[in-house]
Every structure is written in structure tokens, then in C-alpha cells.
């Protein structure tokens, strides 16, 4: 799935592409709303911990996000899923993936941006575009590294640890 060419033998000669007019079937809207309802509480908690981490440690741009490349978690945060409390690992990679969504959105022309924004809002996923991260996470030699701090990301935050 990560190769640059289309390596999809399961589709045979079927043309790969978008649905007509790039539409998303209406039947998927409830699924996307459900995803947002279940994902955002934990994502919000993780982002809060990441903000505190950045405010306290002030990571240097270009530095690896962890001491060892195979170590993906920088800490844990208390959160809940469907009312069940648990501690979840905070992976800066999550922010890297989230940035791919916002970067793709920013690259759209204004008309398409408005259309995507409206669709995400209707699907309950507008927080994907409106929630700011404290710092960018980039990839260098297959390793996550800290990117640029986002302006005003950590104002007023301090660690409670």
C-alpha cells in the first residue's frame, strides 16, 4: 500500500479513480459521524498532553520525537472510550497523519476547500480542520522528527507533572 505505483491486482483491469463528481455516498455519512464521535474525545485528550509536552520540553526542530526510533509513545494520557476510562499512549505520529489531512486541505483551491469544509462539517469531522497542533511532526529517513512550533501553540500551558 505504500508503493508509488498502483499495485492492486485484486482490481484486475478495473479503472481506479474517484466516484462520479468526487461524491461520497450519502449512506456513508452516518459512519463518518460515528467515527468523529468516537475518535475526537481521545484525540483531543492526546493533543492536550502533546501541548503540555511541547510547552515543557520545547523540542528542537529536526530532533527525533523519541530517543529510539522504535519507541513511538512519548507518554500516556487519561481518556475514555464510550464512558470507559483508560490511559492511552500519545504518539506524535498521530499528529503527522493529521497534518496530512490539513496539508491536503490547504492545497485545495478555494472552491474545493469550501466544498470539503462543508462536507466535513456535515459529517461531524470539522475539528480535523479547526484544531491546531502545537508543533509539526515531520519524517526524515523514516523517523518522526519535530517540525516547526506552531505560533501561539502553547500560550498559558504549563505541565502539571
TL;DR of this structure?
The protein is built from four helices and four strands; from the N terminus they run H-E-E-H-H-H-E-E.
What does the model show?
- With 161 residues, the protein is an alpha+beta fold.
- It has one domain.
- 38% of the residues lie in helices and 17% in strands.
- It has four helices and four strands; from the N terminus they run αββαααββ.
- The protein has a two-stranded antiparallel sheet.
- β1 and β2 form a beta hairpin.
Percentage of residues assigned to helices: 25-40%
Main sheet: strands, sense, barrel = 2 strands, antiparallel
Instruction: Supply the number of structural domains.
Output: 1
> Order of strands side by side in the largest beta sheet?
1-2
Spans of 5+ residues with little confidence (pLDDT < 50)?
A: 154-161
Mean pLDDT: 85
How many individual β-strands? 4
Listing every helix as H and every strand as E from the N terminus to the C terminus, the arrangement reads HEEHHHEE
As a percent range, the share of strand residues is: 15-25%
End-to-end separation:
40 Å
State Rg. 18 Å
Distinctive features:
161 residues, alpha+beta, two-stranded antiparallel sheet, globular
Amino acid at each position: 500500500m505504500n508503493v508509488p505505483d498502483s499495485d492492486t491486482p485484486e482490481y484486475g483491469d478495473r479503472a481506479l479513480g474517484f466516484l462520479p463528481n468526487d461524491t461520497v455516498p450519502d449512506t456513508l455519512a452516518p459512519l463518518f459521524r460515528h467515527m468523529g464521535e468516537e475518535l475526537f474525545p481521545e484525540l483531543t485528550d492526546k493533543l492536550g498532553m502533546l501541548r503540555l509536552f511541547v510547552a515543557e520540553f520545547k523540542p528542537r526542530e529536526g530532533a527525533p520525537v523519541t530517543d529510539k526510533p522504535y519507541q513511538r509513545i512519548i507518554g500516556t494520557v487519561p481518556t475514555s472510550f464510550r464512558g470507559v476510562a483508560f490511559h492511552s499512549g500519545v504518539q506524535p505520529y498521530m499528529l503527522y497523519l493529521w497534518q496530512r489531512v490539513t496539508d491536503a486541505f490547504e492545497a485545495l483551491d478555494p472552491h474545493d476547500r469550501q466544498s470539503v469544509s462543508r462536507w466535513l462539517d456535515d459529517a461531524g469531522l470539522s475539528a480535523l480542520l479547526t484544531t491546531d497542533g502545537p508543533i509539526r511532526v515531520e519524517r526524515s529517513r523514516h523517523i518522526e522528527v519535530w517540525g516547526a512550533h506552531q505560533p501561539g501553540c502553547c500560550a498559558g500551558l504549563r505541565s502539571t507533572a
